[in-house]
Amino acid sequence: MILVTGGAGFIGSNFVLDWLAGSDEPVVNLDKLTYAGNLHNLASLQGDSRHHFVQGDIGDRALLDQLLAEHQPRAIVHFAAESHVDRSIHGPEDFIQTNVVGTLRLLEAARAYWGGLTGERKDGFRFLHVSTDEVYGSLEKEDPAFTETHNFEPNSPYSASKAASDHLVRAWFHTYGLPVVTTNCSNNYGPYHFPEKLIPLMIVNALAGKNLPVYGDGMQIRDWLYVKDHCSAIRRVLEAGRLGETYNVGGWNEMPNIEIVKHVCSLLDAQRPRADGQSYAEQISYVKDRPGHDRRYAIDARKLEKELGWKPAETFDSGIRKTVQWYLEHQDWVAQVQSGDYKDWVNKQYA
Ligand code: NAD
Ligand code: DAU
Questions:
Q1: Counting ligands in written order, which one lies closest to the CA of residue 55?
Q2: Does residue 305 have an active-site annotation?
Q3: At 299, is the pLDDT very low, low, confident or very high (cuts 50, 70, 90)?
Q4: How far apart, in whole angstroms, are the C-alpha atoms of residue 334 and residue 193?
Q5: Where are the alpha helices (DSSP H) in the chain?
Q6: Which residue among the candidates 136, 158, 192, 342 is catalytic per the annotation?
Q7: With a threshold of 0.90, does the pTM exceed it?
Q8: NAD(P)-binding domain spans which residues (predicted)?
Q9: Active site residue: 31, 57, 134, 166, which one?
């Protein structure tokens, strides 16, 4: 049994689906179901006794204690977070509450639970903290990619809150000996990505005939990884990562935003041409830049590749093609997310 937090979000739900596709080890999935949590992502697991969903907050210590005592997990995989940089700029409070205070509560609950284990169960316990490359700050064009020893220089309320959580996790290892591992991953994309983030927003807006808003000059660089490859990296680190270590996760795929947007447009042009025969690229609109916008992220994933033998399965070309195809085939999912209907569905299932 493993406990996953945030398993109804974008990466968490992909992780839970992949986990249960490859193993019979059950999952307790603790998720608050904020605007970003969507149980529709996990609809294929309805009635599957290996998936035990609990709606709740990682900040709720009593609930955490109860879940740990009841399910006795051998590991915690911690995804739950407020994840969107733009939202953190407009309202940082929730980011501190969930990403920092919530992680603190989870660490403390894990420490109490782990302290009560003995023998192999104690030795084998793991707390895997899922984090981001944004904690390292921003790179100049000529800088080498981020390694695990890069300074922490977070620039947004989101990245500052994640950096704080990474520091807490590190401290719980050094001070209390809690068996932790941390992953710092680059930008993910793929199925179930909430359409407030660049790639799904561009697909959804393009199909709806809306503008494709590109911040600033569109030359900011992100390093993209297909979500299933992030999930396989997490599984590998959980299995074999050295305690107290951090592992960067990325697919060596740096691209300027404007290229990403044009690439998405050209795939849509081929797969779902506009009625007027024009390209979706006609809808691109340069808009005001994001405050404090990091210029470039790039992940050096050699530690994970060499030490643990991990490799991504998808190239950017194959991953983005699958992603566009998935959105074209799941317009009902998009409609529900945009209307907020998925919350009604959840309420009915778990009333
Ligand atoms: P997401 O916003 O799609 O999902 C977050 C999930 O956490 C949602 O299901 C939400 O309901 C849940 N949640 C939020 N607050 C909670 C709370 N207080 N208690 C319990 N559940 C709560 O995020 P995501 O993109 O899937 O990211 C998951 C994790 O991966 C985050 O920790 C994020 O920092 C990290 N990460 C994301 C990316 C990326 O590109 N998306 C890259 C690297 C790391
Ligand atoms: O690097 C990992 C991080 O990637 C994760 O830790 C975050 O949780 C995740 O949200 C993501 O953060 P970004 O800020 O990089 O992702 P976002 O999709 O919001 O933006 C990607 C880039 O595209 C960024 O440079 C801003 C730009 N952008 C974004 C949106 C939503 C636009 O130009 N237009 C847009 O409408």
A1: 1
A2: no
A3: very high
A4: 10
A5: 10-22, 61-71, 85-90, 93-95, 103-115, 119-124, 157-176, 198-207, 227-240, 257-271, 302-308, 316-329, 331-339, 341-349
A6: 158
A7: yes
A8: 3-323
A9: 134
Closest alpha carbon to 68 in 123, 17, 21, 105: 105
> Which residue of 4, 5, 10, 297 sits with most ligand 1 atoms within 8 Å of its CB, as the best mutation to test the pocket?
10
Identify the residue whose C-alpha is closest to ligand 2 atom 35.
Answer: 198
Unique residue bearing structure tokens 């520091």:
167
> What single letter denotes the amino acid at residue 164?
A
- Per residue in 116-160, pLDDT (tens digit) is 999 999 999 999 999 999 999 999 999 999 999 999 999 999 999
Give yes or no for residue 248 CB within 6 A of ligand 2: no
Calculate how far, in angstroms, residue 274's C-alpha sits from the geometric centre of ligand 1: 34
Residue 351's pLDDT is 55
For residue 84, which atom of ligand 2 is closest to its CA?
Answer: 10
* 137: nearest Cα among 149, 150, 155, 162: 155
Give me the count of residues in the chain.
Answer: 351
- CB proximity list for 7: less than 8 A, separation 6 or greater: 13, 15, 16, 27, 29, 30, 31, 42, 53, 79
C-alpha angle with apex 210: 209 to 213, nearest 5 degrees?
140
Ligand 2 lined by 216 (C-beta under 6 Å) = no
Structure-token match 């981020």, residue found: 146
d(CA 255, CA 224): 8
Complete domains list, the chain, with CATH: 2-349 (3.40.50.720)
Kindly report the average pLDDT of the chain as a whole number: 97
Tell me if 32 CB under 6 Å of ligand 1.
Answer: yes
Rounded CA separation 111/66 (Å): 14
